[in-house]
Specification:
The complex is a heterodimer of chains A (198) and B (89). With 198 residues, chain A is of the alpha/beta class. In chain A, 36% of the residues lie in helices and 26% in strands. Chain A has a single domain, classed as Rossmann fold (3-Layer(aba) Sandwich). The chains are: A alpha/beta (198), B mainly beta (89).
Chain lengths: 198, 89
């Protein structure tokens, strides 16, 4: 009888130990989230700000006379978006996002921007000057199409801090400029306010 | 989706402007201040969605406040729209 009870308690404690070990070993979990969800980790620049800005600017640009009123899809290039805030913001990501959405709409054509010119000239050099390619099957130098318009802008912020509250206000400005006449064809801005309370 | 029972949609309308569908939705908050996020879903001729999912956009509505939300379709193929509301923390 005593033997039976002993083995029972041994089995029970062994089971309890193994359960404890399993829960102790589960550790931090990784889960995929929704890339489009609202992100409220802190009051700094975040993914929702990037998405809101790109979407608002794209939709507004598609309605402008220069784009919606032109017969053929106009050719545009991306110029600089200045970061006038005190945070590190990769403004190139914002304009790339705008460019992708505009291309998907099919209403705008894009020419390579200044930052991408090096790749373009390298490729043309490779095809034209290396002597390796058949002359009838290459992309010839001197046939690039210039952009009629360029997109440039800036992002600025006003940050106010007290003991309990941090308030951040962003304003993103975007302009469409006619390359030949130098005239501003379209301009729009997006304002965002984020407040963090301690 | 989420806890959005206190938000009423009081008006929905749309029109074609500059060749692209523009939608306008009026929402009203009947109870305490609520943080909600919204997005539009754009539908094409045969009932299929014409774009990828949009990002959720947050909006703050105070109690009793009624706000107008406008959306512009990303492509001229959109002929109809759906409006989605969600709560965000």
């Amino acid at each position: 009888m005593i033997m039976k009870i002993h083995t029972k308690t041994i089995y029970l404690s062994a089971f309890a130990m193994s359960v404890l070990l399993l829960t102790a070993c589960s550790g931090p979990q990784v889960r995929y989230g929704d890339a489009k969800a609202v992100e409220t980790v802190n009051a700094n620049y975040g993914s929702t700000d990037l998405q809101m800005i790109a979407e608002a600017m794209t939709r507004s640009l598609l309605q402008s006379k220069a784009i919606s009123g032109s017969k053929d899809a106009p050719i545009v290039t991306l110029a600089d978006v200045k970061n006038k805030t005190s945070e590190y913001i990769d403004t190139r990501v914002i304009t790339d996002k705008i460019r992708t959405q505009l291309m998907k709409s099919g209403q705008v054509r894009f020419a390579v921007s200044i930052t991408e010119m090096q790749n373009q000239t390298d490729e043309l050099k490779r095809q034209n000057q290396s002597g390796l390619y058949k002359n009838s099957a290459i992309a010839k130098t001197g046939n690039m199409q210039g952009a009629q318009y360029r997109i440039e802008g800036s992002i600025a912020s006003i940050v106010k801090n007290t003991k309990d509250v941090k308030d951040v206000y962003y304003v993103f400005n975007l302009n469409l400029i006619n390359n030949e006449s130098g005239l501003l064809e379209w301009a729009d801005e997006k304002e965002i306010r984020k407040t963090a309370t301690r | 989706m989420g806890d959005t029972d206190s938000i009423q949609i009081t008006d929905m309308r749309s029109l074609m402007r500059n060749g692209v569908l523009t939608a306008q939705v009026t929402i009203q908050n009947d109870s305490t201040s609520n943080l909600v996020s919204y997005r539009f879903k754009w539908i094409g001729k045969n009932g299929m969605a014409v774009t990828d999912e949009e990002a959720w956009k947050p909006v703050t509505i105070a109690k009793g406040q009624s706000t107008v939300i406008m959306g512009i379709a990303p492509t001229p193929d959109a002929t109809d729209f759906r409006f989605e509301l969600n709560q965000y923390k």
